Amino acid sequence: MPAQTAYVPGVCNINRDEIAYRRKWRNIGAVSTIVLTVTLFIVSSNRWIRLSIFLPAFIAAIGYLQAKNKFCVSYAASGLQNAAEDSTKADKVSKEAHKLDQAKARKMNIQAALVALAITVLAVAA
Fold it and tell me: Which of 15, 105, 118, 125 could disulfide-link 76, Cβ–Cβ 3.0 to 4.6 Å?
């Protein structure tokens, strides 16, 4: 399936190379979450220490969502986009586009936080 290559405010703001970068961070977050969770259970850590699982779980979830949606939340917050396939540099977006991008970024951050919270609650409750 080819990646979407054109910038669409609130929909797509990154190209294939940027998507690959988000996948890398998704994988780092997922592996870190698993390693940290297993380690904390092996050493019988107290439940409060297990709250530290939230951060790598959030990194995994936001990385997944950014790659899936072809959308970078950091670019959205900064008013930037890098959707052209041959581009290596992010460009500024209009004020109207920035507002649409910010709304999409908020939604994705909430989704990632809810996923990370669910994973953390399961680890703390176990």
Answer: 105
Which residues share a beta bridge with 14? 82
To the nearest 10°, the Cα dihedral for 111, 113, 116, 119?
-80
Sign of the Cα pseudo-torsion (17, 19, 25, 27, in order): negative
Reading the chain (126 residues) residue by residue, the pLDDT tens digits are: 344 458 999 999 999 999 999 999 999 999 999 999 999 999 999 999 999 999 999 999 999 999 999 999 999 999 999 999 888 899 999 999 999 999 999 999 999 999 999 999 999 998
Nearest one of 104, 121, 106 to 69, comparing CA atoms: 104
Per-residue burial over 39-55, b if 16 or more Cβ lie within 10 Å, else e, is ebeeeeeeeeebeebbe
